[in-house]
Amino acid sequence: MEILRWQAKNPLANYQYIVCDPAQNAVLIDPLDTEQIASLVRRLALKIAGILITHEHTDHAGEAGRLQRAYSVPVYSSHASASAIAADVQSLHDKAELRLGAELIFRAHHTPGHTPGHTVFETDGLLFTGDCLFHAGCGNCRSAGSSIEEHFQSLELRLGALNPDLLLLPGHYYAQRNL
């Protein structure tokens, strides 16, 4: 499995991820930079199998519909986030296993707090955390529908129950600021 990661050229410097298997099947996670994605897909001959969205904020989900149409693939997110994403979203329940290729197997973990439908995705020792958890910090709870109590429960109980050796892949790089 190979992970392609780069920061979008937006003010929040979002991380974007492409997870690839040896057969060039690929999954986009919180894609935002459509031109860079298209370039990588062409250059590496990737076959996009699906798009995973951690939550509905536009800096994570704003290009989901456009990329869904470009690659004719499903978009996955939680039920609570689905209606706020401008794409045809397939809802995932908590702990859902998603197979998008022989080696592209993801487990969805609902982590409400930052948004009611926030979801993180686990695969092969990796945890894509969106805005739930960052290096040296966690996402804020200042937007509509957010809940500091739910966020604490997500961090303490939901993420706390996962393997502590998972490699954290957040939606932004805020470590320097957080420290």
Mind explaining what this structure looks like?
The protein is an alpha/beta fold and 179 residues long. Helix content is 24%, strand content 32%. The protein is built from six helices and 13 strands. The chain has a six-stranded mixed β-sheet with strand order 1-2-3-4-5-6. It has a five-stranded mixed β-sheet with strand order 7-8-9-10-13, with helices on one face. It has a two-stranded antiparallel sheet with strand order 11-12. β2 and β3 form a beta hairpin. The radius of gyration is 15 Å and the shape is globular. The model has no long low-confidence stretch (mean pLDDT 94).
In short:
By secondary structure, the chain is of the alpha/beta class. The chain is built from six helices and 13 strands.
What's the number of helices? 6
Mean of pLDDT: 94
| Strand runs, count | 13
What's the arrangement of strands in the largest beta sheet?
1-2-3-4-5-6
Strand count, sense and barrel status of the largest sheet are:
6 strands, mixed
Based on secondary structure, the structural category is: alpha/beta
State the share of residues found in helices, binned by percent: 10-25%
How much of the sequence lies in strands comes to 25-35%
